[in-house]
Amino acid sequence: MTRDRIYLYDTTLRDGAQTNGIDFSLEDKILVARLLDDLGVDYVEGGYPGANPMDDAFFAEPRTTRATFTAFGMTKRAGVSISNDPGVAATLGSGAPAVCFVAKSWDYHVDVALKTTLEENLDGIRQTVEAAVAAGRETMIDCEHFFDGFKANPDYALACARTAHGAGARWVVLCDTNGGTLPEEVERIVGEVAKVVPGSHLGIHAHDDTGQAVANSLAAVRAGARQIQGTLNGIGERCGNADLTTLIPTLMLKDAYAGRFETGIAPDALASLTATSRAFDEILNRAPDAHAPYVGAAAFATKAGIHASAILKDPKTYEHVTPESVGNRRRVLVSDQAGKSNLLAELARLGVAIDKADPKLDTLLRLVKEREARGFSYEAADASFELLARRTFGEVPVFFDVDSYRVMVERRFNAVGDLVTVSEAVVKVRIDDEIRMSVAEGNGPVNALDSALRKDIGKYQDEIASLELVDFKVRILNGGTGAITRVLIESMDTRTGRRWMTIGVSENVVDASFDALVDSITYKLLKNGHAGR
């Protein structure tokens, strides 16, 4: 059976750049383009040539080898000839082999925003497409606010799509710009458009303001559209765009779509999807969404003991696809709900050999339940759990002992009269009966403590040079000034990219932080194979 081809168009570098709190550098854009190219999407839209010097520099040379590098621009302005329109000239002058022009398709916007006639807007669409096609570019028209325009004046919205296609546009993309259209509406309207523009030339560009951008994209595919626009991890202005890390595996792994359609993504690239998603978050310097479909750390995590037992017998019971197909992994969480099945499954994953009849397993189960009653949460701190388990089984050597630490926070006026807060920490560690004391300042007590602890750790100093703390979370577990505090620290080995989570719990936030820091260093030394004592 011949399957229809679905083309994937990524707008991360333009739509994603409009995300609150995200600002791509030139190097960021180059890295993201490389990630997308390696993944295998069909088009990578690089931004708007002429909009700023950085985008000009980005388009100075090709940034993809497999994907079609695409420039974004606007259709010809009213009252200006096509040859004198600077926006069109900049887009066509970018050198990108494909171009995508945004066009007004809602009659209200033509009147209010463009302040021109409906016919003049259609003529601008036609002339822009013809000029791009004549320049040898694969040409797309992104019909802005198409679904709102169709609801207000279906004849005019259809005329915009028909004009673009008739002028030679390879793709006519229907954009749900404010993200307010529902899947049943998208499917009905795209079906109507497919009567005047072949589905093989139709695309969908969905925003996620009702949380249904993925569903709307799939609805458009069912109605005939064969191009999907989206972003990595669903970033974009307001609530984001259709998430390609959800759409790609759905198209490739779900029978309703995999049997009818094919994409340009190879199976081995699909198996790298989780790594791609997390590498992108690393570029953005933000923590990955643990609950993201397919690629999140919790996407294949099970907590309850009864479910864990079922998973061990038959993974298909609770997993809609195999975790490995998208580069993720199964996690049977260890918590106060855990039974031996959870522990055995997690220990097996960690490579800890233990007989299920060993009484130490009962000891570990009791310790987990006791500690979680005090506020620990090992389901979120796999490294601390592994250390607890190995210590219970006598498998963690002692690398160093902390004899004492002291933290001082001083608020004072500096020499020029500015009010400043200074944090200083002193840590005394013992390594092979040799005592080392380190002092450090930081931008807070925990930062100062971390710097002092890692300033001089003797023979292990080179080993922790690649240790980086990438996230720090504090949660108050009960009210009042004497509340129990839980600290979670995410660490990374910059040499290998490996990440791990450690935990500390105490009435004192500094003490909880210090315990998590010590666990992080101990875990890294353990994984590096040091014997300790």
Automatic annotation (TrEMBL):
<dbReference type="InterPro" id="IPR054691">
    <property type="entry name" value="LeuA/HCS_post-cat"/>
</dbReference>
<dbReference type="InterPro" id="IPR002034">
    <property type="entry name" value="AIPM/Hcit_synth_CS"/>
</dbReference>
<dbReference type="GO" id="GO:0003852">
    <property type="term" value="F:2-isopropylmalate synthase activity"/>
</dbReference>
<dbReference type="Pfam" id="PF22617">
    <property type="entry name" value="HCS_D2"/>
</dbReference>
<comment type="pathway">
    <text>Amino-acid biosynthesis; L-isoleucine biosynthesis; 2-oxobutanoate from pyruvate: step 1/3.</text>
</comment>
<feature type="domain" description="Pyruvate carboxyltransferase">
    <location>
        <begin position="6"/>
        <end position="271"/>
    </location>
</feature>
<dbReference type="InterPro" id="IPR005675">
    <property type="entry name" value="Citramal_synthase"/>
</dbReference>
<dbReference type="GO" id="GO:0009097">
    <property type="term" value="P:isoleucine biosynthetic process"/>
</dbReference>
<dbReference type="InterPro" id="IPR036230">
    <property type="entry name" value="LeuA_allosteric_dom_sf"/>
</dbReference>
<comment type="similarity">
    <text>Belongs to the alpha-IPM synthase/homocitrate synthase family.</text>
</comment>
<dbReference type="InterPro" id="IPR013785">
    <property type="entry name" value="Aldolase_TIM"/>
</dbReference>
<keyword id="KW-0412">Isoleucine biosynthesis</keyword>
<dbReference type="Pfam" id="PF00682">
    <property type="entry name" value="HMGL-like"/>
</dbReference>
<protein>
    <recommendedName>
        <fullName>Citramalate synthase</fullName>
        <ecNumber>2.3.3.21</ecNumber>
    </recommendedName>
</protein>
<keyword id="KW-0012">Acyltransferase</keyword>
<dbReference type="Pfam" id="PF08502">
    <property type="entry name" value="LeuA_dimer"/>
</dbReference>
<keyword id="KW-0028">Amino-acid biosynthesis</keyword>
<dbReference type="InterPro" id="IPR000891">
    <property type="entry name" value="PYR_CT"/>
</dbReference>
<dbReference type="InterPro" id="IPR013709">
    <property type="entry name" value="2-isopropylmalate_synth_dimer"/>
</dbReference>
<keyword id="KW-0100">Branched-chain amino acid biosynthesis</keyword>
<keyword id="KW-0808">Transferase</keyword>
<dbReference type="GO" id="GO:0043714">
    <property type="term" value="F:(R)-citramalate synthase activity"/>
</dbReference>
<dbReference type="GO" id="GO:0009098">
    <property type="term" value="P:L-leucine biosynthetic process"/>
</dbReference>
